[in-house]
Amino acid sequence: MKKILSAMLPLTALIGAFPEVASASAGGGERLDLISHPVGFIALVVFVVAYGFVMAEEFTHLRKSKPVLLAAGIIWAMIAFVYANHGLPHAAEQAVRHNILEYSELFLFLLVAMTYINSLEERLVFDSLRAWLVRSGFSYRKLFWLTGVLAFFISPVADNLTTALLMCAVVLAVGRDNPRFVTIACINIVVAANAGGAFSPFGDITTLMVWQKGIVDFWTFFLLFVPSVVNWVVPAAVMHFAVPDAQPAASGEVITMKRGAKRVIFLFLCTIATAVSFHNFLHLPPVVGMMTGLAYLKLFGYYLMKTFDRKVAYERRRTDSNQLEIGDIMPFDIFKNIARAEWDTLMFFYGVILCVGGLGFIGYLGLTSQVMYVEWGATTANVMVGILSAIVDNIPVMFAVLTMQPDMSMGQWLLVTLTAGVGGSMLSIGSAAGVALMGQAQGMYTFFSHLRWTPAIALGYAASILVHFWVNGGQFSIPASLP
User: Which of 120, 216, 261, 381 has most Cβ atoms within 10 angstroms of its Cβ?
Assistant: First the structure.
């Protein structure tokens, strides 16, 4: 403990060496201008270093939540120290509580969605779909388009990461002996999954954050459907001619969904409807509807458990020991599906939200907003947000935009939602779907194989923006309702 305290003394001395900072009244409370203060510089460096480790996760194998959790604690500790020294001991506390409230809504919402996805996976819904696609005997080119279409339309309901992994499993099962097909199909899946998630509040974390913030209502998101289609179809049409025109060998694998699978799908749709209804008609946060929907699944899980006959299930499988699986002789367990949530991702969101919130509290986001949305203009800034999200994860980028709250029309808020959602497709490291598929199709889908098709993907990115201005031109005269 003494070693830790002694290591912190130089940093404490540095922070305390500059006691004079400008203050201003903002949002009903006094704010210190820390942009040019050592704390501001140190916080910026801490965040950049932490995010460097996040981007290098593929090489270091250090889970992305760890550096940002540490960075969030360091940033807010420094902010609180300076404010306490200036007689404002509760200012940082109030600000960080606001960030934690925003995170808690996102956390609970995603936890319910992940639990439903895990339940569908446990009931073999995705495996059944994969087996059907594999044994259908489609040609490589048909599979290229079919997996793209499915990725585009599944990701708005599930999420782009789960959808991409499912479709990639199909591609690997069919074309493992044809690396060229696997490479192009994986690129197509990443682009389609990201594009499909951009027009739905449930399709991507960025759209979810915009919806929960109350800036864009549920049905307005679907105005991005046509631009999203263009974003995927343009590069897919270019890549089509590079797909091998051959017929892979069909498989006879048949996977039957477990009891209750279709009812879990129905309950998931009911949960989405509940979240939308609570938000639109009762003006409650969407997370309240999602948690109510979790109760649907928990009660149905209780029903499955009480009506599950272990003896009959065991006798049915006992004659073929090779097919005996623990899932066949154990009842549905909702808490196991909750435990299988992507906890590293959920903790990563906490770190990102608090890090970006801390930088915003220091004053950096206000400065960035002035440069981007006043000097550059909203259109240029929003297009750049998409390009930036290809290098940096779109979650901190979009949270920064939401924290800045630039005064934009509804058309511009839809534009930044679109660009933040699809901009990551331009590089394989620009989205969770791309990073995951690089691991799943290792050696066949790589950073440089994706980079080869970046010009075609960028063409789709530009086309989707132009189409948005064309089909949603009327939205640019409608002011957005900022919270």
Answer: 381
Mean pLDDT for the chain overall: 82
The answer to whether residue 351 sits within a structural domain is no
pLDDT tens, residue by residue, 2-49: 443 344 444 444 444 444 454 544 444 567 878 888 998 999 999 999
In a domain, 414, yes or no: no
pTM for the structure as a whole: 0.76
- Binning pLDDT at 50, 70 and 90, where does residue 1 land? very low
Question: Among 33, 63, 89, which residue terminates a domain?
Answer: 89
The pLDDT confidence band at residue 383, using thresholds 50, 70 and 90, is very high
Asked if residue 97 belongs to a domain, the reply is: no
Same domain, 316 and 221: yes
Query: 149 and 116, same structural domain?
Result: yes
What phi and psi values does residue 31 have, to the nearest 5 degrees? Answer: -120, 140
Domain that holds residue 67: 1-89
Q: Are 122 and 327 in contact (CB under 8 A)?
A: yes
Residue ending a domain, among 294, 324, 340, is 340
Domain count, the chain: 2
